[in-house]
């Protein structure tokens, strides 16, 4: 079994995802330092207690996630659920790596790129291969809906491929030529998608106000699940790590209906 040094892995991931370029709500990269040799990595969407427990049970050396710890407006004290999570990592010498916006944005391995692959969306790309984007930090992607030519067909595709009933706002027969998408909790970027000419917008979550905005702007809206839309970037990243370093990488899907 191959091994990689924990700091070497952090530097490689930081470089691959250009982590230093992002102003984020959490630290990106190594969040908890564990043992120095890594042969087995568990990947997941969120560094929940359940994911950490699974990593310990399976004898992993590291956990790699999209949603890590130490978010900007959190209580910084190490008590309660935070203590329980941290104790699991520290007692078991686990490394924790987390990449938030850098993993949303990566042009090939990122959540938006991977959601497009899973849903058969065709991103618009410039000659240099960079995706056409809009919205704050260029987080919203633009493209064609592929063979899903109506809002209803696109919603069916979400249901089939993500295994989840989406919340849909708009006429099912609405024809679609241009769509926009951003994984996770990006319902606040619906207006950016509309301004960029998208006829429909797919994201993970919905707010009460999103429904009114979608109806009033005439843009079709699909909330496909925060967790469900963000399962794919970390899997692509895990595959890249396994291929480059020859270490064992396992994705663990902790069910989350939100
Ligand atoms: Zn997210």
Largest sheet: 7 strands, mixed
Whole-number average pLDDT?
97
Which radius of gyration do the C-alpha atoms yield? Answer: 19 Å
Terminal-residue CA separation: 37 Å
Backbone structural class: alpha/beta
User: Could you give the order of the helices and strands?
Assistant: EHEEEHEHEHHEEEHEEHEHEHHE
Strand content: 15-25%
Provide the list of bound ligands, each named once.
zinc ion
Number of strands: 14
Q: What is the helix tally?
A: 10
Helical fraction: 25-40%
Shape: globular
Instruction: Outline the low-pLDDT stretches.
Output: none
Task: Describe the protein in words.
By secondary structure, the protein is of the alpha/beta class. Helices cover 36% and strands 20% of the residues. The protein has ten helices and 14 strands. The protein has helices at 6-16, 49-57, 80-91, 101-105, 111-119, 151-162, 190-195, 208-217, 226-229, 232-245, and strands at residues 4-5, 29-32, 37-38, 40-46, 62-67, 95-98, 122-123, 133-134, 140-144, 167-169, 179-181, 200-203, 220-223, 248-251. The strands form three sheets. Strands 7, 8, 9, 10, 11, 12 and 13 form a seven-stranded mixed beta sheet that branches. The chain has a five-stranded mixed beta sheet with strand order 2-6-5-4-14, sandwiched between helices. The protein has a two-stranded antiparallel ribbon with strand order 1-3. Helix 2 (49-57) runs parallel beside helix 3 (80-91). 45% of the residues are buried. The chain binds zinc ion.
């Amino acid at each position: 079994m191959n091994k990689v040094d924990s700091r070497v892995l952090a530097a490689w991931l930081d470089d691959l995802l250009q982590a230093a370029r992002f102003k984020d709500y959490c630290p990106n990269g190594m969040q908890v330092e564990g043992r120095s040799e890594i042969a087995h990595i568990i990947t997941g969407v969120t560094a929940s207690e359940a994911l950490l427990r699974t990593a310990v049970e399976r004898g992993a050396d590291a956990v790699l996630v999209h949603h890590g710890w130490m978010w900007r407006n959190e209580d910084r004290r190490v008590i309660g659920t935070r203590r329980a999570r941290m104790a699991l990592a520290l007692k078991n010498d686990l490394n924790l790596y987390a990449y938030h916006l850098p993993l949303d944005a990566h042009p090939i391995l990122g959540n938006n790129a991977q959601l497009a692959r899973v849903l058969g969306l065709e991103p618009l790309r410039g000659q240099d291969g960079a995706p056409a984007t809009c919205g704050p930090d260029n987080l919203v992607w633009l493209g064609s809906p592929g063979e899903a030519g109506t809002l209803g067909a696109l919603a069916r595709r979400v249901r089939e491929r993500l295994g989840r009933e989406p919340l849909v706002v708009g006429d099912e027969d609405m024809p679609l030529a241009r769509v926009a998408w951003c994984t996770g909790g990006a319902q606040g970027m619906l207006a950016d998608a509309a301004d960029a000419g998208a006829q429909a917008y797919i994201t993970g979550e919905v707010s009460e106000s999103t429904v009114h905005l979608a109806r009033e702007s005439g843009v079709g809206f699909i909330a496909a699940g925060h967790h469900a839309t963000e399962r794919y970037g970390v899997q692509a990243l895990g595959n890249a790590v396994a291929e480059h370093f020859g270490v064992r990488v396992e994705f663990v899907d902790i069910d989350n209906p939100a």
